Amino acid sequence: MAESNFVDYVKINCRSGKGGKGSTHFYRDKMVSKGGPDGGDGGRGGHIILKGNKQLWTLVHLKYRKHIIATDGDPGSYQLMTGANGKDEILEVPIGTIARDEVTGKVDFEITEDGEERILVKGGRGGMGNNHFKSPTQQNPHYAQPGEPGFTLWKILELKILADVGLVGFPNAGKSTLLSVVSAAKPEIANYPFTTLVPNLGIVKAYDNYSFVMADIPGIIEGASEGKGLGLRFLRHIERNSLLLFIVSCDAPDILGEYNTLLSELGKFNPALLDKRRILAVSKCDMTDKELQEELEKDLMKKGKKILKNIPVVFFSSLNRQGLALLVDTIWKNLNNYPIK
Questions:
Q1: To 5 degrees, how large is the angle CA 187–CA 315–CA 267?
Q2: Is-contact 14 156, C-beta < 8 A?
Q3: How far lies 70's CA from each of 44, 97, 128, 141, in Å?
Q4: Which of 3, 64, 187, 252 has the largest count of CB atoms under 10 Å?
Q5: Of the segments 29-38, 276-285, 307-316, which one has the largest average pLDDT value?
Q6: Backbone phi, psi, residue 282, to 5°
Q7: What is the pLDDT of residue 71?
Q8: Residue 81 to residue 43: CA distance in whole angstroms
Q9: pTM for the full model?
Q10: Looking at residue 236, what DSSP letter applies?
């Protein structure tokens, strides 16, 4: 997923079609000079529709398409013929796209399945022809309904990435490196903070015929839930992950403290995130020897006895692949509710 092509937020102006007017026609032929009303109804105006497409991963195709306009319905005609409906505008979007009103901020709906279609903006209803208004006292009505106008609304489309595992950690904790070695993804990697500016996805092979999707989210900093750093923009992507993998570097001054800070920021953004399954993974263990690693592990489990209860802790190194097999196995078992030993 190229950085320049990843777009997860667009604002579009939607104008649905207006309905066609009803007809005021009266039946006429060579044998009937003054027949009754036979005006048909007007056609419905075109809808603006969102359709889920599992092949799409970004909203980049809508980035520069600011105005979405559906066509108007045709007017009714003689012999009770209804006018043609306006052509619908169908916008294909990735699964996980949320539509909301730009003015109120209210969520209209969410696209969660491939091929799912939802009406974003309804077209105007077609007007009824004069045939609908005949009565014993008014047998020749000379009026029909005009078509209802369409709607012009600003809508916001937001994408929340669907992934099995979300990588959560401070900048430069080793999230991108981990994704690059356990999958075929090639995120940008460098020895400075905020190398990752957009989420990256990778498919991780667990066993012969099984795999799961891992998402590398841009680094979170303290205060991200209040808009600091890049966290606020991308925290919503974490909401869709089945499992959260917290990455903390083994050279951090306080591993448990960093884990608690990350957990706190997620809770401030959305308390429901605290109910997700999670794993703590300590990265960059190639910088320590076996004895120091054992000391770190004992100290971590002692201090975090309550905080890390029922939460697996795995030490690993992406550089020399130490502990990677155990980490992938632990993730797979958590995703599939296998007992962790």
A1: 70
A2: no
A3: 11, 21, 21, 32
A4: 187
A5: 276-285
A6: -95, 120
A7: 97
A8: 10
A9: 0.70
A10: H
